[in-house]
Amino acid sequence: MAGNLSNSVVSLSSSLSRLQALNGVFPVFKKEGPTSADVLNALKEALLREAGVTNPNPRKRKKQCMKMGHGGTLDSAASGVLVVGVGNGTKMLSAMLAGSKKYTAVGELGKATDTLDATGTLTLEKPFGHVSRADMEEKLKSFVGDILQVPPLYSALKKDGQRLSVLLKQGQKVEAKPARTVTVYNISLQDFNPPLFTLDIECGGGFYVRSLVDDLGKALSSCAHVKSLTRTKQGPFTLEGVLHEDQWTLGHILKVLQTCPGTDQTTAANLEASPGTDQNSAL
Prior knowledge:
10-stranded mixed sheet, two-stranded antiparallel ribbon, elongated
């Protein structure tokens, strides 16, 4: 009995050590509904459970035994690529924020909401029958390059340490942030079936697709909001390589992890070869 207990303790310690030795970034898939923070906490919990930690609570920062963060918040209603940094990889996330991102957005003409997407309250309805595909394609040209954009009121941006979206939900008055310069590398109209339309967008950091669609609706003498949004690329990561929930294991992470510059490759190799790290677990 004592020997079995000792072996279990050693196994738990070894699993946690392998987890804590991770340093780098990797992509996961965020589905519609949870916040980016919710996804991160669920990922932490899955990894801690795999390592043998009982009753893990990833929200208790003081008791965390692993360092993890995400780069580039996705709205709760949005889905797609969410880049996660683990260990020293959290320091690489700012570079991911500055890199190129791609989105596919479905917009709806004729209706505006307070959140600029389908989760909000309808604030305005306007005719859209006059808008043609050619009109939209022409207007989209003015949104390419370095442009000025006002961020949405409902956003992760903060005032006095509080997110604007939280302050609004508390009934507090919030002023819009000033317009700022953002970069749009390319926009293409993939589908036009009024009132719905689909855009593919490649942009830099700090860009809000919801603001683009709202501004586009106004430019077309109508209004519009985002019905659905998917991030298809962030930095070097695309949808094709993301880890879905059933792949949130150490083994799968090691397959896609981009290690930090200067990471000891011998350590990384030992992690992959460590006993108990089943590359095909939890499939």
